[in-house]
């Protein structure tokens, strides 16, 4: 093993994995680890840790707050919690009288707060909180299932398999699959995960449009097939999956909407992705 | 765009962090939801939600502190309790057992990290804060943050089944940090 360069330390390897190096330093560290298999493997292992950790919690961003928290006053939370779960700002149950007085005051405040909620104009902070903690009991979009469906559908493409995951500089191809910024077309990034397709990494990103339009966009490096225009690679009766390939990579889009709106969304996303500002 | 327009997005991030922090699992958790709820209410009460520049950092700082307070109170309440009960409440706060590490998955490994290591790892990796932001949230120096991050990664190293490389071997699964 080549001895580590005196000006490259363990912290640089962590910073490389976490994307915290400036470009010049990054090049220096990449050049160093290219000649140090042990450090290269260490960096690969940490990147894998990162990917797995993010993938494990990717679905949380798609859930909604339980209705049980809706308008639940803090005093009521206190009374219903077991002692092992009490949070520090709650009154001590052993001080009964102060607790009862606090409970009465809390109930009074909650009544006033409820009236305030009713009278408060839309768009306020509290109204936003209200909407968040009291969501519509709509059917939830299962982004995890959508990702699985998209990856499975990619196998139906004529030339299976994306290009090699490694570049000559030894960089992980995941870094070439940045989360697309689609805020300009009204899609907000709500989650990301990295999965595997035919030996190559695929970045899957979940977006939320308005109102309650969920999308899963999976991006891979271009496959061995020639570029192709949009095509539906979903299989009935499942929801459609629109795929295309261009110079920015191989893309597949699924969503909570029907075929026509999904196709329109795919066209907008494709146009946004090929804007010069998004190219690397 | 003000932060109050982004309350939902902020809350989703907070909930993800809270679940990972309190139970090292993406499964629904009342405690995590209450931490998020309390964080947002505290921020509303002191007007932090209207300050777009630092609301996210403030929220994560507050939630981290609330969780520490919660655990501190648990430890106080554990005084006089049976030893077994105290251990079960402090799950996730002790050092990992190297002998058991091989058979654990990522989430179990995450649960076995010390709280300070888990906080650092989650803020940097899961929430993708910069080192400076994570240091600010945890009230530690950059050196302290890096130390925690390194210890966390070293503890998790080997718990995951790494991907196959081009030669068919597993990448990194045999690695250990050598200091």
Cα radius of gyration of chain A in angstroms: 25 Å
Total beta-strand segments of chain B: 0
Helical fraction of chain A equals 25-40%
Q: In percent terms, what proportion of residues of chain A is strand? A: 15-25%
Nearest-integer average pLDDT of chain A: 71
- What is the C-alpha radius of gyration of chain B, as a whole number of Å? 18 Å
Q: What are the segments of chain B in which pLDDT stays under 50 over at least 5 consecutive residues? A: 82-103, 168-179
CA-to-CA gap between the ends of chain B? 46 Å
**Distance N terminus to C terminus of chain A?**
33 Å
- Please work out how many helical segments of chain A DSSP would assign: 8
How much helicity do the residues of chain B have? Answer: 55-70%
How much beta of chain B, percentage-wise? Answer: under 5%
Largest sheet of chain B: none
The secondary-structure class of chain A comes to alpha+beta
Seen as an oligomer or otherwise, the chain set is heterodimer
Q: Could you give the order of the helices and strands of chain B?
A: HHHHHHHHH
Number of helices of chain B: 9
Describe it for me?
The complex is a heterodimer of chains A (280) and B (179). With 280 residues, chain A is of the alpha+beta class. Chain A has 8 helices and 6 strands. Chain A has a 6-stranded antiparallel sheet, with helices on both faces. In chain A, a hairpin with a 3-residue loop joins strand 2 and strand 3. The longest helix of chain A has 24 residues, at 96-119. The two termini of chain A are 33 Å apart. The relative contact order of chain A is 0.10. The model of chain A is unreliable at 67-93 and 164-174 (pLDDT under 50). Chain B is mainly alpha-helical and 179 residues long. In chain B, 61% of the residues lie in helices and 0% in strands. In chain B, helix 2 packs across helix 3 and helix 8 packs across helix 9 (142-156). Chain B is globular and about 45 Å long. Chain B starts with 6 loop residues before the first helix and ends in a 23-residue tail after the last helix. Classes of the chains: A alpha+beta (280), B mainly alpha (179). Chains A and B meet through helix 1, helix 3, helix 6 and strand 1 of A and helix 1, helix 2, helix 3, helix 6 and helix 7 of B.
